[in-house]
Design brief:
Number of strands: 9
Largest sheet: 7 strands, mixed
Number of helices: 13
Order of helices and strands: HHEEHEHHEEEEEEHHHHHHHH
Oligomer: single chain
Structural class: alpha+beta
Helix content: 55-70%
Mean pLDDT: 79
Distance between the termini: 108 Å
Strand order of the largest sheet: 2-1-3-9-8-5-4
Length: about 400
Amino acid sequence: MSDRTRPSRLLPPPLRRNRVDPARVDAVEGAAGVPAPESGTPEPADATERRIIDSALYVGGRRVASPGDLAATYRVLREHDEAIAWIGLYRPENHELASLAGEFDLHELAVEDAIVAHQRPKLERYDDTLFVVLRPARYVDDREEVEFGEVHLFVGPDFVVSVRHSEAPDLGAVRHRLEEDPELLALGPEAILYAILDRVVDGYAPVVAGLENDIDEIETEVFSGDPGVSRRIYALTREVVEFQRATRPLSAVVKGLGAGFAKYGTDEELQRYLRDVDDHLTVVIEQVDEFRQLLRDILTVNATLVAQQQNEEMKALSEVSIDQSEEVKRISSWAAILFAPTLVGTVYGMNFDHMPELHWAWGYPMAVVMMLMVSVVLYLVFRRRGWL
């Protein structure tokens, strides 16, 4: 039984495909906002080499051809009824996706998503073709940051088209792994889809470890009183939120594939593989949820510690202010006490001939007693009020 009629698929039974429909090419390129290429116009060889990472045809799980361009891939695929084509593209041009859409009857909406990118993980079924969007991630140790990529997969009865918009993941390693396991690759395009899914989910493990290490460092910084930790908590929270956006919808993708097991008679081995991917993904999602909650708690603790520190500073300032106020009181009290005799001495020190008590024999003793009495009274008053 050929790959095009084998029932054990995640995909529905294949429909008849229109090969290189010019109208289809024009429609897809029109949706992409670019003019259709002229018929027979060859592509620049160097540009094609940069965008087509690898193109291979497999029969029975073994590579039988490695065409150098899309046209050769189409031709060889038509010549081998049992063949499966896997075309790997990196940021392809619009006309290349339009060519693939015409050859494999890809839906215009899926092609438009692959061109525009910036999609959330999702699974769409268009007749006999699956369109899958994945968001791989990798942890960059040098910058202590998480980089997110995007991969679009078109999976049909006898083809897989992988479109990468980022450096990660390394699908070349996935291809090498499958080529070393012909029995798995012989299960068809679904095996390629599984292997890419498995690679993306496995790539989340180093990201989880990196985020966990960053959180540990942040906890240390929080309790050491690092003033810049709030900014780092905010930046790390944004990375965790972005990581959630990459992993949570992917769970629905895996479950959507699992829902088609019975309907499309998926091979039992692939069912086990996909359940294993689902288990690993569930663990990652739970860990990311814990990270977000932990960061919320850390942010709350940091805010509490900052408030306590501010309270301590305000308390210290208040104590200093109180001490200063006490000093002002003491200085003011002594100034007032000293001012009274100064005032009396000033009055009787004026050089006027006609002043009361100026020539009185008891004038001096009275002035001295008056100064002492006023000073003592002021001292007692200030002492009673606690100023001295």
